[in-house]
């Protein structure tokens, strides 16, 4: 019964961890045997930096929050799931009594307990107990690997909803990492005619170009705004999704934006970003921010099942659980061309 434990900054170990034996199944919970867990940028950041902002790793913590698995036990009051169901899980558990939760915005509940965010343990371990309300059944035609992609996909779908995508809009996605690419897929599924994706990695841009009506822009060679204005008869894009976390890119979001356009900030920023309010004003730009997602897991599963969204090309590498320390070392080296790496647990 081993777990992948971040002991401290830059020190991971695969070892027995007591939490497995301590978790009990409440009436509204299920116990899930983990199958596939994706490696997220946040997991890698905790490994390389020992924390992020206010969340610092002060005690050994199990990593991983992008997960799928099989229900192996159900609480007495659970009616929506049964033993043997294949599922994916929404990793944040809000306080049902909190004001934000009661408003429907449970993702911004300050008391939310989110897997692999200190001090809450993640799920790179054999099993976990989770509320049935945050556990979603996978149809037969959605694999465990795709199920473990629902969590990052949810960020893109939430962003597309915030952007108010209208049929025929053009969008720019800045950053071709996993979140940038799921955002591009979500924007297309929401009705965008065309999506431009800007990055500096030619391998990722080539992958992006194969996902649909996506025009790659390598910003190390080409100015994104100039390219977009040329392709849109000087109008610009109705939506800019900032997924790079790069401060300079974030400051320039209004340049390629069409009049009355929307900007959604998705990539996390380490410091302050100064932006040109004048450029935003003359466009009457609307600026949105997302923090994770709310109410979108079932939509994501439905789109994977129907074929409206295909995330399989984004899964570029798989590791056995026994190799998970090496998987994190590789992920931390940010190899070019890799998008989503996943770890498979022994079944
Ligand atoms: Zn994630």
The appropriate CATH architecture of the largest domain is Alpha-Beta Complex
What low-confidence regions span 5 or more consecutive residues with pLDDT below 50? none
Summed over residues and divided by their number, the pLDDT gives a mean of 96
* The CATH homology group name of the largest domain: Medium-chain alcohol dehydrogenases, catalytic domain
Between the first and last Cα atoms, what is the distance in angstroms?
12 Å
Count of discrete structural domains = 2
Oligomer: single chain
Beta-strand proportion:
25-35%
List cofactors, ions and other ligands: zinc ion
What fraction, in percent, of the residue positions are helical?
A: 25-40%
Number of strands: 20
The outline comes out as globular
Describe the structure.
By secondary structure, this protein is of the alpha/beta class. The protein folds into 2 domains: 182 residues, Medium-chain alcohol dehydrogenases, catalytic domain (Quinone Oxidoreductase, Chain A, domain 1, Alpha-Beta Complex), CATH 3.90.180.10; 134 residues, Rossmann fold (3-Layer(aba) Sandwich). It contains 12 helices and 20 strands. Strands 3, 7, 8, 11, 12, 19 and 20 form a 7-stranded mixed beta sheet that branches. The chain has a 6-stranded parallel beta sheet with strand order 15-14-13-16-17-18, with helices on both faces. It has a 3-stranded antiparallel beta sheet with strand order 2-1-6, with no helix packed on it. Helix 10 links the parallel strand 17 and strand 18. The longest helix has 14 residues. The chain is globular and about 60 Å long. Zinc ion binds next to helix 5. GO terms for molecular function: oxidoreductase activity, acting on the CH-OH group of donors, NAD or NADP as acceptor; zinc ion binding. Belongs to the zinc-containing alcohol dehydrogenase family. Keywords: Metal-binding, Oxidoreductase, Zinc.
């Amino acid at each position: 019964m081993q777990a992948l434990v971040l002991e401290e900054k830059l020190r991971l170990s695969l070892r027995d961890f007591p939490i497995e034996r301590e978790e009990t199944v409440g009436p509204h919970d299920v116990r899930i045997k983990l199958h596939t867990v994706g490696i997220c940028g946040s997991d890698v950041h905790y490994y390389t930096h020992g924390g992020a902002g206010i969340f610092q790793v002060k005690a050994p913590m199990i990593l991983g929050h992008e997960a799928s698995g099989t229900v192996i036990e159900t609480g007495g009051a659970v009616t929506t799931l049964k033993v043997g169901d294949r599922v994916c899980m929404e990793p944040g558990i809000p306080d049902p009594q909190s004001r934000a939760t009661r408003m429907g915005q449970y993702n911004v509940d300050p008391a939310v307990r989110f897997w692999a965010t200190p001090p809450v343990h993640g799920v790179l371990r054999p099993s976990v107990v989770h509320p049935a309300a945050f556990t979603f059944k996978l149809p037969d035609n959605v694999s465990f690997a795709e199920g473990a992609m629902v969590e990052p996909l949810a960020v893109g779908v939430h962003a597309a909803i915030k952007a108010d995508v209208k049929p025929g809009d053009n969008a720019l996605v800045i950053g071709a990492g996993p979140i940038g690419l799921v955002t591009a897929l979500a924007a297309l599924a929401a009705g965008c005619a065309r999506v431009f994706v800007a990055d500096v990695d030619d391998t990722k841009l080539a992958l992006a170009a194969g996902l649909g009506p996506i025009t790659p822009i390598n910003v190390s060679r080409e100015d994104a705004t100039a390219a977009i204005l040329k392709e849109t008869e000087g109008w610009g894009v109705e939506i800019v999704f900032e997924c790079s976390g790069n401060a300079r890119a974030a400051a320039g979001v209004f340049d390629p934006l069409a009049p009355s356009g929307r900007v959604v900030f998705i990539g996390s920023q380490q410091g302050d970003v100064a932006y040109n309010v004048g450029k935003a004003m003359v466009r009457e730009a609307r600026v949105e921010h997302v923090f994770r997602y709310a109410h979108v897991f079932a939509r994501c599963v439905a789109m994977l099942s129907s074929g409206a969204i295909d995330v399989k090309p984004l899964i570029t590498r798989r590791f056995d659980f026994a190799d998970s320390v090496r998987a994190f070392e590789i992920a931390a080296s940010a190899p070019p061309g890799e998008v989503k790496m996943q770890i498979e647990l022994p079944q």
